[in-house]
Amino acid sequence: MSYACRLRHALRTPVGLTALAGVLALALVALLGPVVLGPTAERVDTGAILQGPAAAHLLGTDNLGRDIAARVVVATRLTLGLTLAATAIGVLGALLLGVAPAVLDRRAGRVVTAAVGVLISFPGLLFVLFLATVFGVGASGAVLAVGLAMVPPGARLVQNLTASVAGSEYVAAARILGVGRLRMITRHLLPNIAEPCLLFAAQAAAGTLVAFSGLSFLGLGVQAPAYDWGRLLDDQLDRLYLNPVAALAPGAAVVLTGVVFALVGEVLAQAARPARPTAGGTAAAPGPAPRPARPDGTLLQMHDLRVSFPDGRRPVRGASLSVREGEAIGLVGESGSGKSLTAQAVAGLVPSPGLVEAGTLRFEGRDLLAERPRGTALAMVFQDPMASLNPALSVGRQLSEVVEVHERAARSVAWVRAVDRLRAVRIPDAAHRARQRPHAYSGGMRQRAVIGMGLMGTPRLIIADEPTTALDVTVQRQVLDLLGEVRRESGAALLLISHDLAIVAGVCERVLVMYAGRIVEDLPVADLAGRAAHPYTRALIGAVPTLTTDRDRELATIPGRPPEPDDTHPGCPFAARCAHADDRCRTDAPELVPHGTAARVACWHPLTPAAPGSGNPIPEVRDASTTEEATA
Ligand SMILES: Nc1ncnc2c1ncn2[C@@H]1O[C@H](COP(=O)(O)OP(=O)(O)OP(=O)(O)O)[C@@H](O)[C@H]1O
Questions:
Q1: Pocket around ligand 1: residues whose beta carbon is below 6 Å from it?
Q2: Domain limits at 383?
Q3: Do the domain assignments include residue 360?
Q4: What ipTM does this complex have?
Q5: Predicted TM-score of the model (pTM)
Q6: Where is the composition biased (Low complexity) (predicted)?
């Protein structure tokens, strides 16, 4: 549903109708008031000075005999005009300073954040009075003072909101897509923070009205002969006990208008509220023309990859792997072993302040430490499809954007391709569904849409990081089948990250086992059951439930815990949990070296192949029934 549709819907609610009536009434009074009652409000009548309420003068008269009711009505235009001008300054300033840290480079962003932090520490009222004095007494000085005083708290709010959106996967995906700063702000950041920002703007308008009236009341705002509600309040306050209605009327006008502003904010925010979804993501990166991969067909070449953080954590400690054209490789390991960071290092998505170093990190022959992967050659599918889809954009728009940005394709052409790709990933009624936003999709459909997004270009490698973990077991199989199909049809290679050996065994040809930031074994899937040589791989296999697992026995678990990412012990990281470890294992770390004809292992005491039939057969892909049995 478009914003206009949601706004129409919100306006039909009781709050919406009240807000609409209030806005219409204010607009009417502001437009027609000075025209109809202007002469009455200005007419001096020395014969009727300081009169109380009567039929001729509903709220009485002032010290020049002017009709107070007419003056309150006429003052509406100036009061609203000044309030809206100050609010516009405040909101614009808040948006500019609030979004800046997310799009500027890190140092400039920090300066802006620090400046806002300093400004916000001044009490608001003092800040207004200080600025009003700086800009001079008068309406324009007061507009600037009130507007600028609103900037620091607004900017802090926008900064916080932007930071949460900027950390999402769809923004990361857009960033490596090469989406420009302006587009990033208008398409990805602002639409997703619109709801709280609109509420803030409405509250700010109400606050501005009060602040403005306060300044005029203090004699720092509007100056005679001009008048707004604040000035009228000031004029009548000393007669509060003689003619209370004359003093209260401008105050009541301020309160009622503030209520209308608040209602308007609620309606706008309601219309901007994205129905909260769930999402995963696809990322593809920009770059020049394709370069052939290495002649031996190696697409991704990684040697001694290290990812570290300034706090001393070193979650990836020398991972080495290679992926050849069209190959499907599974990367398995316990939670925290560094699988995701390895994938993020390839895509250039390691979160700040993580440091990525490597002996070699090449994709299509291109050094990834120096340049980004080419165009749409690399597609990423993340775990949570909702986090990688922008909740404020239709799914079709998000897919089209990939080719609009990369191939400068016309919108209509990009849209046709988006619908086609959604159809390819079996989204039913794709033409209609493309116009919907992600919340209207089921979890499985979202993940399929994310895979479709990866297919908008010409991916040579798809990195799927736990793509089925967030999904219901019944749709896991569909998504895995789809990944396999996509790979066969597009010829792309697949790096499938999972903590679940069964999933990897069902989809991949080769398995890499990761432990404490290193690859400890690399072997064909067919060898998993009987020929795994690393004790850790054997233990992982032993922990996989199968259809023949005795339900009355507890599943095998690996005793002990993996080392923490800041652990500095020398030797094999698995030594403390390994039944075969000796002194050498505890002091020297083994390298990943060839083992047999088709495998590599990092172990001083690789195990000999298990006797035929004694290995734990890995079930193809755990489906709903197996999982239920396993957990029963
Ligand atoms: N942004 C970060 N800052 C500091 N440490 C981090 C950060 N991201 C990850 N780590 C550390 O790196 C370790 C490995 O993280 P990673 O996400 O790569 O593990 P994983 O094997 O993918 O595990 P999981 O299956 O749970 O996602 C984590 O345990 C954490 O200690």
A1: 309, 313, 315, 333, 335-341, 351, 354, 499, 565
A2: 298-499
A3: yes
A4: 0.95
A5: 0.60
A6: 275-286
